[in-house]
Amino acid sequence: MINNPDQKPKTEKEKKGDFIRYIGIASTVGINMVASTFVGFALGYWVIDKYLNSHPWFTIILTFLGIVAGFRHLFRIAQKAGEKNDDQ
């Protein structure tokens, strides 16, 4: 739907470019979810719990914080995408 009558419809090339951009964003979100969870786990397990001998508490806490960081990134990406759709 075109809100602005002066705005031209997108060409096939522009639609394909948008699709590729969205695929890139989706893959970035997936990679970020896994990476942030792994970093939280690794810091908790191999760095803090190993040296403080407080197994498994910091592993659980930092893994949870890594998951929260991944979802925070996901929500920021979704919010930016929503703002771009509202502008168009």
Please characterize this protein's 3D structure.
Helices cover 82% and strands 0% of the residues. The chain has 88 residues and is mainly α. The protein has a domain at 28-70. Helix 1 (12-52) packs antiparallel against helix 2 (57-87). It is elongated. It starts with 11 loop residues before the first helix and ends with a helix. The model has no long low-confidence stretch (mean pLDDT 85).
Biggest pleated sheet? none
Regarding quaternary structure, what we see is single chain
Question: What is the SS-derived class?
Answer: mainly alpha
Strand content: under 5%
Binned, the helix content reads: over 70%
Mean pLDDT: 85
Count of distinct strands: 0
Order of helices and strands: HH
State the end-to-end CA separation: 9 Å
Inertia-based shape? elongated
Number of helices: 2
Poorly predicted ranges (pLDDT <50, ≥5 residues)? Answer: none
Radius of gyration based on Cα positions: 20 Å
